[in-house]
Design brief:
The protein is an alpha+beta fold and 103 residues long. Helix content is 18%, strand content 28%. It folds into 2 domains: 32 residues, no CATH class; 69 residues, Surface presentation of antigens (SPOA) (Roll).
Length: 103
Amino acid sequence: MAEIKANDLMQVGGANGSGMNSGSNIDMLMDVSLNVTVELGRTKMALRQILDLQQGSVVELDRLAGEAVDIFVNDRLVAMGEVVVVDDKFGVRITELTSKQSK
């Protein structure tokens, strides 16, 4: 197991240890993978209803067609968007970034 020394943390976190204070420090994080989830809506169903689902079944969600979808990064709401089609694939156009105050 590698040993991490206080001096190493100072170099990563900046001279004052307060976080990223130069462009080169943030570059270390640019290749970190994050889970991005787009939520169209939610619903509650009884177990009996779940067991009755089959191909072609329709599950009604709590959102209206055309309403904004939620965009989560690592289970944290970060934006709202609208569903678009790009080269026969679904995509999401970001329409609003959420602020820390609205969470």
